[in-house]
Write a sequence for this structure.
């Protein structure tokens, strides 16, 4: 009997398994009728909620009633923008000429003045606390919005003196004294041009006089101030014409110890004095000669920050000194390389120089110089030679000095580290001598984009500082949490946080606020005195020396004068409100590098990227092609050639572009219009999507002069629930003189001017526009305009009127009276969807919003702010530049009735997740049906409400669809249901934790099928501004290839203590650690509760790692940032979805989908009965580094080998003068006499670390 029961049981189980297998092989198809019904019900709910909450139709009707359209003409737009920028630059140039004339005049008059005495005091921007008697306090400094809200005094200037420059040296103090007279020119310039930024004079003695006066910003962590104006782009470019530099560094056996350290500092300092118009390479030689960067073989590379960094890494990696140096081979190789570049018109195409760094030479190599450098006589030698003799105990210096003197160079003897930076820069005035001798020609240079006073060499240091902070955080966390520290959930959270930090590199140029990005104009200032008396020794009768005074030729560079043009001013000059949404303008230099562009992303976190200012136009304008990385399409290369050669014209190109933190992408046809900015190396380009965004809204005539609306102006802005674009200039006072002209917010400023406009008749029409440069002066003319700007303020009338009109249109849009039925419906949808906020943003930069009662009111500065989401308006004030605005306008081209929905990506706090929905409001022309974007409306609601709606609808079964609840609804185990957006991100799922994830990361095989069937299109985006993080392996023999930073060196010195410090932090009971850790880990109990609810006690015990073993897990993996290319595959929904595809079996296409009407969403149902593929096939949308195997995965090597063409600056190349030989006989170098001050000694150690 028992055996019979067993047989029956086995039989029944076999039948069940056969049934299951049959069902698995022949699963029930997804009911398309049921799917369609679900999609329709979702549409009905979402559509009606949006219409009731946003009141879109009412706003649409208002705009269509009287607004008109105006076409955008690309040729006119680019001509206007280039004209405005030219006028701006002309005015800056005139200011420079006034400063220049003042510098040269007061310097001549002060030639015979004795240096001031000990009683002389200076207004030092960073006063030396040790010697207060030498400095004048900077009084009455007031915050000024025009100077980045820095406290300034606009009645006088202040000076910055490098830490290692002795400010009481006779030549320094004398120049400080006479340069005080520049304040008159500074003040006059500011009176004439109120939009003038910082003005400054950088002296060859090292100090910089800057107007208006300011206190120098404190350095983080009390690090030493290493700023030296002579190392900044504006100084090095103006001081001499562009140059090719070959640095030869001796690596023979004698270059050991201190000599090697000094040599490295010399090379690094030389590299720091180069700009992007210079070309350089570093060769290391002993018995053989090689490039320090092997892939730069036989090349001179452009001196971009990235290439300079690569060369410095190569210098750090030089092998230990050995053998005997063959100078002939090294010098010959250098001369031949420079000759090749001259003959082929490559490189800088102007000055050339060899920098020889050694501890001694065996001879003067007369014959070598004669054959390579004196082919046309000593008057026409193409290459200068500068020699740097290293070490205290050195042989006879005569040969090294002769080499420099005979080749129009300069000789320096360096015996200590602290004198390197001051002595190395002596080569710049020498290369400037031909310019000085010509006297009449003062070339104007424009720098590429760069960061104000930020030292780019600090990138590695700041990143290591962040990692140290992370290490401290993890150590304290381990101290506090112990058992929970290694729980999978906690470890995963730490990994996610670090990953987010590394991926946080998509902040574009106008959203980052830490660094002041600028371009500068600069001109060299010459000493007008061309002769001077010098005293020399002369040999008489073979053994008798006498002193005699003689007159000799001199050519002294006084310094460089300059002024800044903020990148924000250039963006403002492009009138983004006229260009409109999804259109933009940008500026490109003669090198093809971007000065300003909406996709310029210069920082990762708050740190400057290693190559932030050498981003090529081909790296931001991506052609829609299938080319691999850095194989640029011919169409963009042709456009680039037209741009860098400063022609005027237009071209159309189909491009692809990304947005929303590089999570979304699309393609479009753009029409590029380009025009030269005359007298500068810049070209302006306007990019228009004319097919869809070729028209802009024009306000009706009744608003043009505000004749009928003046009294109502303030009524349009009565409440506080509105913001304006913070970077657009509506109206502003010319000078920020104090409380009456300074405002806390842009909204306060706008209210102030609205009151003024409301009280006046039409006098506001006389206020000049912000682009009041329109009446520009001829930059080539000799007459300098002296007219003072007589207006108190200026306004952009077009923008201001558009703003007032939009305010009128949108006033009360969310509270307009409705009938009782509509009010009831609206209230019903508010509650059902948990609506938290409604908003509208307009093309004039206005954003209004209305909070609903269930919106949390807790301010962000409350105790619980870490667990809150910021208010919508805290992060969404840029109107047409916001992602939801751009997406809504763009999707209007697909469906003009569609709302666009989105959720935060990978949101960890699901309970507070909000859904954002937006739809564009267009004005449509009655005559030609053309459209122009006027505004975008939208709202936010609880994701939990959408989740509930989704589950409720998809669990329903309808008899007319032939549905079986147990099999066909989303509650069935046979069906997996999702709502996806048009880029493949999950908006809703049966598993709420999927929200915000990319669908390919959850169901990769299904996503790949949809891409294959053209439901989603793949768009490959290359990120040529990427930063990757190379892991530092302490056991790696190549670890020295990283740039040494202060933290790195300190770690080397006390490296053996690291493990002990971590051990103490983890196991000691220091109260200060406890108190700091408590604030950081307030939510630790939550970790314990969550983990223990998932894992058993035995499993939890396995997570406990203690003692020395724990240290290797607590210690983070150190990394170094490096420039890299990244690639990411993004996806976009096709406009026409193929809903029915024939397949041989049901599981060949194990899903069905339907578009949710008037949304950017699809409802996707996956057949759960079909075989599940492995999870390994899942994929995400995170960028991956591009490997360049041809060059050992070195991006810089790849770029150097496949370098793009450039055009040298149009400034004249002045590299020789017939009188120059009269100078070099007696003034081509000297051995240094080192004066070491206490301040210098205090920073020697820090200099050793950072260089």
């Amino acid at each position: 009997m028992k055996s019979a029961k067993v047989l029956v049981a086995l039989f029944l189980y076999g039948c069940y398994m056969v049934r299951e297998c049959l069902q698995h092989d022949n699963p029930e198809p997804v009911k398309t009728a049921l799917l369609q019904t679900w999609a329709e019900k979702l549409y009905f709910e979402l559509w009606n909620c949006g219409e009731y909450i946003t009141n879109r139709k009412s706003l649409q009707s208002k705009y269509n009633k009287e607004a008109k359209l105006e076409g955008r003409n690309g040729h006119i737009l680019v001509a206007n923008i280039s004209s405005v920028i030219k006028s701006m630059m002309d005015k800056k140039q005139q200011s420079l000429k006034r400063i220049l004339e003042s510098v040269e005049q007061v310097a001549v008059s002060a030639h015979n003045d004795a240096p001031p005495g000990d009683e002389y005091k200076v207004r030092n921007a960073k006063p030396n606390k040790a010697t207060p008697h030498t400095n004048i306090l900077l009084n009455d400094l007031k915050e000024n919005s025009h100077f980045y809200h820095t406290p300034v005094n606009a009645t006088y200037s202040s000076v910055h003196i490098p830490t290692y420059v002795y400010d009481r040296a006779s030549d320094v103090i004398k120049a400080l004294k006479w340069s005080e007279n520049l304040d008159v020119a500074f003040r006059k310039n500011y009176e004439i041009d109120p939009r003038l930024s910082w003005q400054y004079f950088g002296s060859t003695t090292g100090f910089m006089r800057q107007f208006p006066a300011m206190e120098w910003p404190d350095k983080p962590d009390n690090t030493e101030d290493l700023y030296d104006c002579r190392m900044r782009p504006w100084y090095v470019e103006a001081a001499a014409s562009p140059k090719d530099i070959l640095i030869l560094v001796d690596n023979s056996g004698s270059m050991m110890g201190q000599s090697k350290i000094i040599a490295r500092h010399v090379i690094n300092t030389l590299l720091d004095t180069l700009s992007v118009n210079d070309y350089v390479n570093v060769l290391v030689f002993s018995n053989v000669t090689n490039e320090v960067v092997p892939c730069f073989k036989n090349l001179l590379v452009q001196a971009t920050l990235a290439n300079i960094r690569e060369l410095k890494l190569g210098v750090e990696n030089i092998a230990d000194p050995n053998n005997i140096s063959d100078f002939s081979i090294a010098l010959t190789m250098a001369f031949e390389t420079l000759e090749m570049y001259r003959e082929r018109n490559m490189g800088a195409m102007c000055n050339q120089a060899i920098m020889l760094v050694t501890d001694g030479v065996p001879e003067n190599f007369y014959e070598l110089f004669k054959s390579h450098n004196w082919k046309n006589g000593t008057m026409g030698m193409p290459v200068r030679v500068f020699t740097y003799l290293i070490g205290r105990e050195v042989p006879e210096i005569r040969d090294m000095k002769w080499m420099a003197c005979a080749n129009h160079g300069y000789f320096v003897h360096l015996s200590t580290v602290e004198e390197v930076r001051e002595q190395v820069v002596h080569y710049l005035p020498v290369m400037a001598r031909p310019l000085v001798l010509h006297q009449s020609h003062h070339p104007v240079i424009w720098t590429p984009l760069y960061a104000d006073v930020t030292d780019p060499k600090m990138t590695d240091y700041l990143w290591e500082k962040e990692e140290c902070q992370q290490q401290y955080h993890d150590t304290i966390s381990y101290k506090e949490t112990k058992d929970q520290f290694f729980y999978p959930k906690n470890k995963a959270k730490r990994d996610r946080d670090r990953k987010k930090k590394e991926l946080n590199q998509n902040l574009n140029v106008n959203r980052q606020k830490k660094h002041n990005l600028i371009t500068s104009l600069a001109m060299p200032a010459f000493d007008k005195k061309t002769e001077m008396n010098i005293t020399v020794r002369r040999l008489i009768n073979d053994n008798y020396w006498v002193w005699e005074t003689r007159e000799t030729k001199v050519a002294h560079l006084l310094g460089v004068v300059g002024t800044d043009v903020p990148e924000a001013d250039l963006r403002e000059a492009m009138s983004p409100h006229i260009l409109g949404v999804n259109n933009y303008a940008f500026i490109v230099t003669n090198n093809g590098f971007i000065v300003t562009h909406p996709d310029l992303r210069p920082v990762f976190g708050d740190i400057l990227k290693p190559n932030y200012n050498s981003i090529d136009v081909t790296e931001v304008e991506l052609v829609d092609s299938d080319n691999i990385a850095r194989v640029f399409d011919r169409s963009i290369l042709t456009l680039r050639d037209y741009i860098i050669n400063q022609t005027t014209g237009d071209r159309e190109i189909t491009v692809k572009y990304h947005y929303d933190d590089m999570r979304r992408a699309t393609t479009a046809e753009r029409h590029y219009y380009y025009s030269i900015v005359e007298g500068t190396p810049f070209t302006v380009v306007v990019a228009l999507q004319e097919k869809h965004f070729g028209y802009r809204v024009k306000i009706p005539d009744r608003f043009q002069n505000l004749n009928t609306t003046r009294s109502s102006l303030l009524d349009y802005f009565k409440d506080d629930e509105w913001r304006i674009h913070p970077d657009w200039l509506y109206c502003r006072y010319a000078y920020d003189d104090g409380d009456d002209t300074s405002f806390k917010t842009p909204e306060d400023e706008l209210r102030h001017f609205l009151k003024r406009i409301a009280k006046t008749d039409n006098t506001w029409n006389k206020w000049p526009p912000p682009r009041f440069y329109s009446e520009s002066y001829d930059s080539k003319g000799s007459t300098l305009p002296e007219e003072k700007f007589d207006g108190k303020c200026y306004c952009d009338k077009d923008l201001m009127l558009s703003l007032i009109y939009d305010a009128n249109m949108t006033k009360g849009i969310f509270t307009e009276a409705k009938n009782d039925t509509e009010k009831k419906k609206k209230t019903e949808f508010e509650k059902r969807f948990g609506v938290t906020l409604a908003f509208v943003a307009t093309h004039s930069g206005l954003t209004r919003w209305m909070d609903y009662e269930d919106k949390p009111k807790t301010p962000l500065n409350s105790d619980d702010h870490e667990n809150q989401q910021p208010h919508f308006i805290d992060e969404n004030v840029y109107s047409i530049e916001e992602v939801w605005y751009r997406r809504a306008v763009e999707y209007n081209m697909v469906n003009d009735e569609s709302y666009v929905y989105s959720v935060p990506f990978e949101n960890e706090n699901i309970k507070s997740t909000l859904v954002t929905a937006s739809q564009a409001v267009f004005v449509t022309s009655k005559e030609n049906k053309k459209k122009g974007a006027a505004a975008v409306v939208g709202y936010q609601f609880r994701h939990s409400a959408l989740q509930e709606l989704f589950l409720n609808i998809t669990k329903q079964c309808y008899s007319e669809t032939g549905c079986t609840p147990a099999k066909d609804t989303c509650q069935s185990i046979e069906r997996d249901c999702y709502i996806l957006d048009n880029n493949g991100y999950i908006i809703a799922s049966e598993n709420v934790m999927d929200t915000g994830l990319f669908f390919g990361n959850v169901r990769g095989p299904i996503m790949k099928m949809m891409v294959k069937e053209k439901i989603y299109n793949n768009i490959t985006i290359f990120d040529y501004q990427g930063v990757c993080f190379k892991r530092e392996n302490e056991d790696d023999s190549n670890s020295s290839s990283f740039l040494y930073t202060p933290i790195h060196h300190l770690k080397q010195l006390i490296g053996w203590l690291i493990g002990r410090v971590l051990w103490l932090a983890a196991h000691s009971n220091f109260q200060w650690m406890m108190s700091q850790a408590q604030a950081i880990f307030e939510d630790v109990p939550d970790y314990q509760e969550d983990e223990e609810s998932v894992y058993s006690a035995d499993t939890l015990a396995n997570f406990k790692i203690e003692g020395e073993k724990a240290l290797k897990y607590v210690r983070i993996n150190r990394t170094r940032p490096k420039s890299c290319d990244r690639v990411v595959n993004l996806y976009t929904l096709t406009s026409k979805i193929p809903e029915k595809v024939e397949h041989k079996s049901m599981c060949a296409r194990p899903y069905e989908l339907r578009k949710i009407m008037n949304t950017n969403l699809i409802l996707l149902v996956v057949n759960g009965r079909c075989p599940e593929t492995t999870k390994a096939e899942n994929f995400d949308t995170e960028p991956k580094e591009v490997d360049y195997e041809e060059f050992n995965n070195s991006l810089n090597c790849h770029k150097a080998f496949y370098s793009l063409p450039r055009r040298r600056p149009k400034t004249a190349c002045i590299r020789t003068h017939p009188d120059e030989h009269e100078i070099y006989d007696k003034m081509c170098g000297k051995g240094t006499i080192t004066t070491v001050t206490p301040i210098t000694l205090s920073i020697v150690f820090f200099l050793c670390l950072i260089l």
